[in-house]
Design brief:
Helices cover 20% and strands 26% of the residues. The protein is an alpha+beta fold.
């Protein structure tokens, strides 16, 4: 037997882009499609984007890898459960029209910059639907926009704002769509994707997709496809090529004829920006974070991955930064200005994340603990709120008038927040972020370098400039009494995790340290997953001796690495699997019982658990 991996983390949070549960057909969705395995920071950026104003997930994942993490799973969240369709996340897109514009009516009333009511033509029978391409003309301005959704009879919500010069009475025309180009995933990040189409003939074209950050900033991502086809079945059929090769865009082709480029004349250059992408963060709810027994989203997605050994939800503690948007690049006076690039935040009224209430945050952290207790083989890394005073942290969350119960040996909590280097420069060169991503990386480094049997403390942290608050020895004593792990800055020694306590109940000293829980979980998981071969075997003395030998080899290896106490193996562990605990009554029930005791280095006492294996699976009982 080989001890299972304990260094793999699971993160849930807000990201710039990436898959969401609603991106998949419900009848084929089992949760695994919306959670992504990430092996490096570069892989995370490719799938989920980089740092952003409204969330901490990217900072946590970067900290995880910078501090020794090797592999993690990430699940993105947004307000996908919002009752109002206009508050849900949406993909940025642009429809290439087929044929000339069809007049459908005039604007009766502009309800707001994103919404108007339509007065239909007397003979018109147009019924708006999502993603329709509209042409609005009035006040000397002509504007193209898409329908985001239809709110009520002839109440139309648009993907972007109506030009201020357009007023009631403006004419509205509709273009039949032959081809839709959309961002690869939902979010307002797609609003800065610039599409350039170079037609060769009626069905063949070249395409360039660029993430355009502005006239004076080089593109951060660019893809070029020299020859694509609109003929189904061809080897370079555009929808298939983009679905398998593009990280930026997708294409859907309708049944109508397509000529590239098509009217109107402003599209004749073949250059457009996608529009209508929405982050869907303003109406985010606790349900979006946690999901439910049959609701596969957020935290619930992590249950689909057995190998996750620790979980963190840094955005549970989100608070809006003082500066809500990164400063725009300064214009270069030597470069002639080009057309302005769309501003994703300005074009998206759902872009600002709504923070959870303190009560909802506690519910979410309790859901994290509940998941760990049910699945047994993972622990929850919890954050305290931002800007918490040390005296409040010592008694958190009771200091906030909240109750955090019951205590759990499957969780650990850390304080204070970290001052991380901030490429966005929202309020300077550093930003205050939750410590859970750093701690997860420290856990992974500890496990890979020394083994899970070693307490994950006294580990120097990287990707951090300072701690939000300095903690003295006396103050740490108060934190220790309340099982809050300190992260401290030591002159000449860097910033270090300086605690390894779990949230075990007071008096439950056997489980006082989080590495005890993690080592026991690793042993139990290894035993359960490695003893499936005994199912349907006859419960004989030979079988019991074979299983005993395998378990002794596993435990001796852990003892040899210093994970178990004792100068001799018999002082460190025992395995009991014989006729005494497998009497005939147990054999007749089709069970095999094996009792294992281990003396973990801290504390001294034996921790005993019993594994019962039968056709229905393994059952582990801790004493």
């Amino acid at each position: 037997m080989q001890l299972v991996r304990t260094d793999i983390a699971g993160f849930v949070g807000v990201a710039e882009r990436g898959p969401l549960p609603e991106d998949f057909a419900p009848e084929k969705f089992d949760g695994t499609q919306a959670i992504v395995k990430v092996n490096s920071w570069r892989e995370f950026v490719t799938t989920f984007g980089s740092f952003r104003e409204y969330g901490y997930l990217a900072y946590a994942v970067r900290a995880f890898f910078e501090n020794g993490g090797d592999q993690c799973y990430c699940a993105r969240i947004a307000a996908t459960t919002a009752a109002d369709p206009a508050q849900r996340p949406a993909k940025a897109l642009f429809s290439l029209p087929s044929g000339a514009a069809i007049p459908v009516g005039t604007i009766h009333q502009l309800v707001n910059p994103f919404q108007f009511s339509l007065t239909a033509l007397a003979a018109g029978n147009y019924s708006a639907k999502a993603d329709d391409l509209l042409l609005i003309s009035g006040g000397g301005v002509t504007q193209f926009t898409h329908v985001a959704c239809v709110l009520a009879s002839r109440q139309i919500l648009l993907t972007n704002q109506v030009d201020p010069q357009i007023a009631s009475g403006a004419s509205v025309s509709y273009f039949p769509s032959a081809c839709v180009i959309s961002a690869a995933s939902r979010g307002n990040w797609g609003n800065i994707i610039r599409i350039e189409i170079v037609p060769y003939d009626a069905t063949t074209f070249g395409l360039r997709a660029t993430v355009d950050l502005g006239p004076n900033t080089p593109p951060s991502e660019e893809e070029y496809y020299r020859t694509l086809s609109l003929v189904p079945g061809s080897y370079n059929y555009a929808p298939n090529v983009l679905a398998t090769q593009s990280n930026l865009i997708r294409m859907e082709v309708g049944s109508g004829p397509i000529a590239l480029p098509q009217p109107p004349s402003s599209l004749s250059t073949g250059v457009v920006y996608l529009q209508g992408g929405r982050d869907g963060l303003a109406a985010i709810s606790l349900r979006d974070f946690s999901g439910g027994p049959t609701d596969l989203r957020g935290l619930r997605l992590l249950e689909q991955i057995d190998e996750i050994a620790m979980i963190a939800v840094p955005d549970a503690m989100f608070e809006a930064p003082d500066v809500l948007q990164a400063p725009a690049p300064q214009p270069d006076p030597c470069v002639q200005a080009t057309n302005a690039t769309p501003n994703p935040v300005a074009d998206d009224p759902t872009a600002v994340l709504t923070a959870l209430t303190p009560g909802q945050t506690i519910q979410l952290q309790l859901a994290m603990i509940d998941q760990c207790q049910r699945l047994r083989y993972r622990v929850a890394i919890l954050d305290t709120p931002d800007k918490l005073q040390i005296s409040q942290a010592q008694n958190w969350p009771s200091s906030q008038g909240l109750v955090f119960s019951p205590p759990s040996r499957f969780a650990a909590i850390y304080y204070p927040w970290m001052m991380a280097p901030d490429a966005l420069e929202l309020a300077g060169r550093t930003r205050s972020v939750p410590p859970s991503g750093y701690v997860a990386g420290a856990y992974a480094f500890n496990d890979l370098a020394y083994g899970v049997q070693r307490p994950p403390g006294n580990i120097e942290l990287q990707f951090v400039v300072d701690v939000q608050r300095d903690i003295s020895d006396l103050q740490q004593a108060g934190l220790n009494l309340n099982d809050v792990n300190a992260i401290r800055a030591f002159p000449g020694r860097g910033i270090r995790v300086w605690g390894a306590r779990s949230l075990a109940e007071q008096g439950d000293d056997d489980w006082r340290f989080i590495h005890v829980r993690r080592l026991m979980s690793a042993i139990e998981a290894t035993v359960e997953r490695s003893t499936g071969w005994v199912v349907f075997q006859s419960n004989t003395d030979a079988l019991r001796k074979s299983l005993t030998h395998s378990l002794n080899v596993l435990l001796r290896g852990i003892w040899a690495r210093g994970g178990l106490k004792g100068n001799q193996p018999q002082e460190a562990y025992y395995v009991k699997c014989d006729a005494k605990n497998n009497p005939q009554t147990v054999v007749d029930q089709g069970q095999l019982i094996c009792e294992i005791g281990v003396a973990i280095a801290v504390p001294m006492e034996f921790l005993v658990f019993e594994i019962r294996q039968d056709a229905s699976g393994a059952q582990i009982l801790e004493n």
